UniProtKB/TrEMBL annotation:
InterPro entries: Transglutaminase-like_Cys_pept. Gene3D superfamilies: 3.10.620.30. PANTHER family: BLR5470 PROTEIN (PTHR39327:SF1), PTHR39327. The lineage of its organism: Bacteria, Pseudomonadati, Pseudomonadota, Gammaproteobacteria, Alteromonadales. It comes from the Bacteria. This is Sulfate adenylyltransferase.
Length: 212
């Protein structure tokens, strides 16, 4: 939801900086979401643990393919709220979410896989065919390149210029915020601390209970 998260704080956390006790993590998922969710959580961690040395392209493909198996469900139906950003664990637990949940889960997972934060931007767009706002994850091979788009609406990772069905509005990562005037490029407008729903998300995405 475009207007629900503007003007507050963006705080990023990542599993990558934590030494996790996976037994605790799996017990939590099993207890709160059940056996099928536990299998998904183990598959997720396997992707992270077994692909650290792969190329970025392989990492993008594996992460995009994994999460795009999940179901698209509106926040209203899933959470009985107009706008709610699920943590990756909540998303994996329910195997369902909206566009923000797909993009956020891919973002955090790629950070864990060692993809540099400066190559990743969560990007709000206008989905022309659906006539609604939508979020995707953009990956920039380098600072001047046209990004590749990871999207739950189209499972194929494509350069932004081939996604004529998407009109970029603005993008952000854990450091900065850009207004996007054209595909692949943006005008830096300040710190990502101007954003909102990340503050609530970061509070819920705490990993201290899963540390070794």
């Amino acid at each position: 939801m475009l207007f629900g998260f503007i003007f507050s704080a963006l705080i990023l956390t990542s599993f990558a900086s934590e030494q996790l006790n996976l037994d605790k993590l799996y017990q939590y998922v099993d207890r709160n979401y059940g056996e099928l969710a536990l299998k998904r959580a183990k598959a997720w961690r396997s992707i992270i643990e077994n692909n650290q040395q792969q190329s970025d392209q392989v990492k993008l493909e594996k992460v995009n393919r994994f999460f795009n198996l999940f179901d698209f469900v509106s926040d209203q139906k899933q959470w009985n709220k107009e706008d709610y950003w699920a943590t990756p664990l909540e998303f994996i637990g329910h195997k369902a979410g909206d566009c923000e949940d797909f993009s956020v889960a891919k973002y955090f997972t790629l950070l864990e896989l060692g993809v540099p934060i400066e190559k990743l931007k969560l990007t709000y767009v206008k989905a022309v065919k659906l006539n609604q706002f939508h979020m995707v994850l953009a990956y920039y091979p380098n600072a001047k390149s046209v990004p590749l788009i990871l999207d739950n609406l189209d499972g194929e990772i494509k350069p932004a210029h081939k996604r004529r069905d998407l009109v970029p509005i603005f993008s952000f990562n854990g450091q900065q915020l850009w207004l996007n005037k054209q595909k692949g490029k943006g005008e830096l407008v300040g710190s990502s601390e101007r954003l909102d729903n990340w503050k609530d998300l970061s509070k819920r995405y705490q990993l201290s209970e899963f540390k070794q």
